[in-house]
Amino acid sequence: MKAFLNYFLGQGTEVEFRNFTLAHFLPILVVAGCIFLIYRNRDKLRDSKWDLRLRYLIAFILIFSEMSYYWRLVAIPELGPNPAEHLPITVCGWAVVFCSYMVIGKNQTLFDISYFWLFSGSIFALITPTVITYTGPARFRYYQFWVEHTAGYIAIFYMIFVHKMRPTFRSMVKSYGALLALALVAYWANDLIGPGANYLFLARPESTPSILDILPPNFALRIVIMVAAISTLFFVTYLPWYIKDKKAKKVPAEV
Question: 164 in the Ramachandran plot: left (φ > 0), alpha (ψ -120 to 50) or beta?
């Protein structure tokens, strides 16, 4: 049993997960199916006794998935649970925390931040899940990663479809400011800890294949490109709502 747990909770020394395979697409398809079911039953859920229960369940799954990441590190010393290298300074990690409180309290501010962070930042983790390169479907980390990085989208769409929450231009500015604050903390942590620290990928590209490999190693140029890319993604993420509002304003004039 101990040998099984060490294997299941540990990680391999060779590549076990490859991008754009069934192991990559299947979790995304499962989450897409969950979101579709939420959309299809949005009116029933809104006025049912299951609404609060489902929101608590989503929050529990989010928090459990985030905490189990650290529990695993403590359980398997071979993974090197160095606190300096596993500080809670990640967009995905904080989005999980924000989403859990958002679904329980129906908090608009947390929705605003989480919406843009997920669709402009965490989305890259789904495109190239570099952190699970050495932990395939036979490992706990594979499942922990996908639950942590997809449950937030279920929470966001649940609040959009069932409770009719939505972002605004002010939401985008608020979320962007929160991201800049987190980036400053990440930069300070990288500088303080030194080699080995790479919070928010500000210090260097990852050692495993990632969409961020296209960024240059030069720090100044890297930051300029990241700021430009994130700013563009924030705007693109808000664009559907902007178009929807513009169309809504034209309707009375045409009647």
Answer: left
Q: Considering its fold, how many domains does the chain have in total?
A: 1
Range 123-132, long-range pairs (CB < 8 A, 24+ positions) = 124/210, 124/211, 124/212, 125/92, 125/149, 126/28, 126/150, 127/211, 128/19, 128/209, 128/210, 128/211, 128/212, 129/17, 129/19, 129/24, 130/206, 130/208, 130/209, 130/210, 131/208, 132/17
State which residues form the domain around 147. 2-79+87-254
pLDDT per position as a tens digit, 154-209 = 999 999 999 999 999 999 999 999 999 999 999 898 888 887 777 887 776 665 55
Is 237 within 8 Å of 119 (Cβ atoms)?
Answer: yes
Cβ neighbour number for residue 39 with a 10 Å cutoff: 13
